[in-house]
Design goal:
With about 325 residues, the chain is an all-alpha fold. About 75% of the residues lie in helices and about 0% in strands.
């Protein structure tokens, strides 16, 4: 089977996965997210980091990733400090924001600059300029590691693939991925198919700040609402926001697993595959025992897989523009 035929078949599969994720997000958004994050998420982190490692993290030097790992460790310590005996360790929130900015901006140099001197100078400039990220705190600290990563970057990867393969079906999947959030927000606005369960109410507390931020961003009237439980779990805007989040995360994971044969992330030594399997089983078990415990256990991997993907994100951005330019040149001839 040719590469293009295989790609077209994958596009059809992904259209099915988009519709499947959308339907489930309508029906039971909170429980869908908790299942996807707790079961599919750990396997995604482990297999993607493994795949990126074999691809040298798409950096010009494999050692570049050390900075991204250090930043991931810093973010893990600052977010879980009360659980590791550092409750008295005070750090301003702006430093978390700056750390993510440094990781994201430095990855541009990691992806394209081979000269180590230029690369070091670039990273130093990024660090010196990191104060400007204070004006964009929500983007770097709240949205970049979450919805930008699982929704926007996934959409761009899909667009890149469609452009490379000149796939009409691929373009359809990209358009569908783009419009589904609007469907989730504006269709069945007054209908709650399956309300949040007591388990979902308890387990979702680790993620509630993302919902709270989005709700207040989309609905200014809710800014004075004091009952956050009602706002997040039972209001019209809260349900719509949760549908989008559940869809974005679920499809992000399913899209990754659908590409197994195309990118070959499963082609690894048996010893590593066994380690991934064991860690995945342990992780899921911890989520089953105590969802909050599973979240803390996997916080480092969750953040790290976002950080070490940044160079690939930049390569994909550039690849999209190259493919568009190539298409225009072909059309002009």
């Amino acid at each position: 089977m040719s590469a293009i035929t295989t790609a077209n078949r994958l596009d059809y599969v992904n259209i099915g996965l988009l519709i499947f994720s959308c339907i489930l997000a309508f029906i039971m958004p909170f429980e869908l997210f908790l299942f996807a994050y707790g079961v599919l998420g750990p396997l995604h982190y482990l297999t993607e980091i493994s795949w990126l490692h074999d691809k040298n993290y798409y950096a010009t030097n494999k050692r570049d990733v050390i900075l991204l790992i250090i930043i991931s460790l810093f973010l893990t310590v600052t977010n879980l400090k009360q659980y590791i005996g550092l409750a008295d360790f005070e750090i301003e929130y702006k430093w978390i924001n700056r750390a993510i900015y440094i990781a994201f901006a430095s990855s541009l140099f990691f992806a394209f600059i081979k000269n180590n001197v230029y690369k070091i100078v670039g990273v130093i400039v990024v660090i010196l300029l990191s104060a400007i990220s204070d004006d964009h705190m929500l983007f770097f600290s709240m949205f970049l590691p979450t919805l930008i990563h699982v929704y926007v970057f996934t959409l761009l990867f899909m667009l890149y693939g469609a452009l490379k393969n000149s796939s009409k079906v691929g373009y359809i999947s990209v358009v569908l991925h783009f419009i589904i959030p609007f469907i989730l927000f504006f269709v069945f606005q007054d209908t709650i198919f399956v309300g949040v369960t007591s388990y979902g109410l308890k387990s979702y507390k680790e993620f509630a700040s993302l919902n709270n931020t989005l709700i207040h961003f989309l609905d200014a009237k809710s800014a004075g609402e004091k009952d956050m439980i009602q706002l997040i779990f039972h209001s019209q805007t809260g349900i719509a926001v949760m549908r989008f989040i559940a869809f974005a995360y679920t499809y992000h994971y399913l899209n990754w697993f659908s590409k197994t044969k195309v990118i070959g992330w499963h082609e690894i030594p048996k010893s590593r595959a066994l380690l991934i399997l064991v860690l995945w089983i342990v992780s899921v078990a911890l989520y089953v025992v105590d969802y909050s415990l599973g979240f803390k256990w996997l916080f480092l991997l969750s953040f790290m897989h976002v950080m070490v993907e940044f160079p690939l994100n930049y390569i994909s951005f550039v690849g999209i523009f190259k493919e568009i330019f190539k298409s225009k040149q072909t059309a002009s001839h």
